[in-house]
Amino acid sequence: MNGSSSVPTPQTAAAHATAASFAALTAELGYLSASDVENVRRAYRFADEAHLGQLRKNGDPYITHPIAVAAQCAQWKLDVQALMAALMHDAMEDCGIKKEDLIERFGLPVAELVDGLTKLEKLEFHTKEQNQAESFRKMLLAMSKDVRVILIKIADRLHNMRTMGDMPRSKWARISQETLDIYAPMAHRLGLNVAFRELQDLAFKHRYPWRYAVLQKAVERSRSSRRDVIQQVIAETKHALQTHGLQGQVQGREKTLYSIYRKMRGKDRPDLHEVHDRYGVRIVVSNTIECYTGLGVLHQMYKPIPGKFKDYIALPKDNGYQSLHTVLKGPFSADIEFQVRSTAMNVVAESGVAAHWLYKASSPDSDTAQRLGTKWLQSLLEIQQETRESTDFLHNVRVDLMPDAVYVSTPKGRVISLPQGATAVDFAYAVHSDIGNKAVGATVNNERVPLRTELKSGDTVDILTASAQRPDPAWLGFVRTGRARSKIRHHLKTLAQADARALGEKIFAYALRMEGIARMPAPDGDYRSSWGKLLRFTNSRTAGDLLADIGMGKHIASMVAKKFASLLGEAGLKPDVVLMSMERYLPRPDALSQGVISLDGSEGASVQYASCCHPIPGDRIVGYLGRGDGLIVHTEDCALGKRLLLKDREHFMEVEWAEDPTRPFDVALLVTVENGRGVLGRVTSALADAETDITHFGMGEERAQHLMDLRFSVAVDNRVHLAHVLRALKRLPMVHKAQRVRPHKKPLKIPKTD
Length: 754
Known about the structure:
Elements: H1 10-26, H2 34-50, H3 64-75, H4 80-87, H5 91-95, H6 99-106, H7 108-117, H8 128-145, H9 148-162, H10 172-189, H11 193-207, H12 209-243, E1 249-254, H13 257-266, E2 279-285, H14 288-301, E3 303-311, E4 324-329, E5 335-342, H15 343-351, H16 355-362, H17 374-386, H18 390-400, E6 405-409, E7 415-419, H19 424-431, H20 433-437, E8 439-444, E9 447-449, E10 461-465, H21 482-514, H22 528-538, H23 543-551, H24 557-570, H25 577-584, E11 597-599, E12 607-609, E13 621-626, E14 630-635, H26 639-647, E15 652-657, E16 665-674, H27 679-689, E17 693-699, E18 707-716, H28 719-730, E19 735-740
Parallel strand pairs: 2-5, 11-15, 12-14
Antiparallel strand pairs: 1-2, 3-4, 4-5, 6-7, 8-9, 8-10, 13-14, 13-15, 16-18, 16-19, 17-18
Helix pairs in contact: 1-3, 2-4, 3-4, 3-9, 4-7, 4-9, 6-7, 7-8, 7-9, 8-17, 8-18, 9-10, 9-11, 10-11, 11-12, 17-21, 18-21, 19-21, 21-23, 21-24, 22-24
């Protein structure tokens, strides 16, 4: 016998380690049938072969990671398809396995799960953030169709965080922050409480190693002094419950280090001893009635703290969590949080969405937890449909992952859960998209409030609507929910697209006249082929998209018109030389005034009136076709406009005022007055008498001086109205000077297009 054969090689040791890991997995599969276990084994063999030769950072075979992920999923009692996907979740990304191969060998459902977990590494994005956001979007969309995707992903992240010490330290901060921002809140949102707590603590440990170590030592030092109190409370609670005929589990629990850290920072409590409710007691009884009975027993034992009771049984969280929470003054005046729940509620509280499979394993006919989290998952599809940019999508979803919630109701008693800090606008969109789009005001508890009002649990909210109302862009500054944000942006983009298309059509028609084309051919008419070539030249999908891009300044109308005129010439439509000469070289008579863009204030989001110079009807104006910002109107003497002209001459065009503007326009005023009692009131009264509205007001810093400057932004119809306003101000005895705030007067001269 060769003695050397008894010495294991590294390959043999790795094989033994892998076999031991898989043996640990099979020990978790007792809830599966023999045929299902064999399918899991087939997936393991396939993954083992695919990852052959690949090692983890600590030198273990790579297959140990998929096995650990599958083992976590088995603890949640996920079905055989999920376990197979967990074993092969990196096969497509790291091993070049095709989706078609997985479909052929393991079926479409397993392949779809693996595909949903696969990152988009092969696609090229402009930034790392966009790459991450697009990968996350794909994963979430797969999750919204099949929640097992995210369960596997959370199990994957959980094992990666447990083995983070093997990763290069340079990666700790990024991965840990991503875990705190996305995966831990998602585990909480889906009710995976045990995973949520572990993810938070592991991420905290690797994101802030020094803070973690200091806090851990401090908690360990203080734990011994509290241990006797908790043990006394548990013993007294058990005795009290038994006295009243209640049988249940009573166990102590402690806040995670990360939750203690957040509480110390969030409430400016640098001293650990000031965080009073670090310890708690959980009571698990048989049913709902016993929960409320047990609560009554507790309130007889210890004194409740006002405002510290929450009934999540009557008002469950969105992830299905149910429990009674109360904070009581225990022995030695210690604040102790009690949680009271039933056995079924405890399963959901610990396992969340995964509780569906736990219930299914023990009772196949039960669908008690099947709908957990589905309301949020379905909302992902709505947000996806209305959010074009992947980074916006990630932001909207991240907002919705915030764990704290408020519970408010409609006048008819329907309870709606919203994130902490949600406003009346968030509530309106949660009720229905049309109500959100048409909201003009709100009443909270029968009192009229602004739409930006933050809501509190217990509020009754009624939204006031108007059929002509549209979403206000300012709402984006205070809404909290991803649903509201995506709905507002989608509506604004739709309106902006229509406005930009109408403006682009005007600009393009004028540019074509400069090229001798009297009328723009219809996209679906005789020159359809010319339009097709033009769309390919400009990389546009449709003629409407091209016109909208022209209106938003993404394409220069004159350049596109030259190309189109050339294509039309090839198709037989020759330019009108006389028209070209008149447009380019002759003074423009009134009959041709339709060539210049006429503005009346009703153009919508595609036209902006520059805040640097506040043009009003009667001013000489020019138009700057901003790069993606639409048409921006400046006065001819605007300093900023002059700088833009030097840098970006080809983006300027001629514009003029319409004869009858449809609305007033803002103008900036500087009013110098003698400081005294009642001065501001008399000035604002004079403005009101002049039939103008104040849209903004500011004062100078020299308030204690004899003279002071008042700065107003007021709405006027035109220059004549402005002159009337200034005369009304100058008639006041305390007004020393009243003038329009104007830029340096050096008019812009827009060059004629060649």
